[in-house]
Amino acid sequence: MNKTRQDTNWGAPIPVEVAAIEQELASLWKSTSEGEGTVARACSCNLIIVSQDSDEAAALLPILASLAEWHPCRTLLAYRETAGQEPAQAAPPHIDAWISAQCSIPSSGGPQGCCEVITLAASGEAAQELPYTILPLLIPDLPVFLYWRSFRESDRRTVEHLARFSHLLIVDSHRSKDDLENRERLLGLLSRPPSGIAVRDLNWSRLTPWRDLITQFFDVPSSRHYARELSEVEINRSVAVPGSIPTRTLLLTGWLAHRLSWRLISAERSGEQWFSRWHSQAGEVLVRFTGSLSESDQVPGIGSVLLRARDGAEFEVARQKGATCMTASARLPGSTRVHSVPADPMDESTLLKQELSLVGQDTGFQAALAEAVSLEKRFRNGA
Asked: Considering only CA atoms, which of 318, 314, 313 is closest in space to residue 302?
């Protein structure tokens, strides 16, 4: 029985002239095809990544290699050089370029799937020319995905220009959680996307297994009425830094509020305890966030979600420290149902694979985001 190898071949970037990129790519693929093994030069989409700096660009290469297994694509990876990265002697503004093929190693006998990567680094005022350098390098008639990995205001003009030619903008609000100024700007971008482009947030995707398991509690006709009779929700999470804003928890609460037609009454917080009260058709609902500092070997995030109905019925989704499964428990009058499902990996590569398989606006995310932003403002104002 053949086993899939987990190794990955990370091609070293080769410096090239910007004007010769297409020619050099053709030469690279020709030399690759003459080596051992079969290499498939397939392409399902264009992926533009606006990176923060050269370190982040380098960290993305293994992620792109993993992505190639599901979405072989042409990736345009662009960043502006910071003062510390530019040569010591001042040079005229310019754009440097590198090419590489990031390939996953397949099952025995199968072809390799590869992403061809064009890396562009702009110096000084040449950063303004990045969109005009990127757009001619896109493969025509294929969808264009734009990934703004680390939100930075100085890159906004570049992103907004590229958004006019893209089908989807992907961001990750988790990366701005400790920078309040950038976080506010990112939330504004998510609420009012540039050029009317569809926007997706990897932080919302990390909530998918939680949302799916909570929804399944009430898919059963005999349990559906409990969704309208909730009186209390407790979301327990581990936090890396005291006082950090629980963006993911706010989004999950916003999703519940939207789906169940709750109306916010009040919100207040004390340390890691956040309390909000909502009006539902059946009466008041208390939503409580609790938190404790994560241990050194523990990934910060939501650990459990408990929903309690007015008659005492409880529904809980939990992920224990170090566990490879998520457990859903329904404790009803006279019966208890428990089932576990494998916990999906939430690494960046897996999340991107999911997002590149989807096209169009996620209206559920937009509605949850609106509720989450409104709730956070109430917490901030203490009312």
From this structure: 318
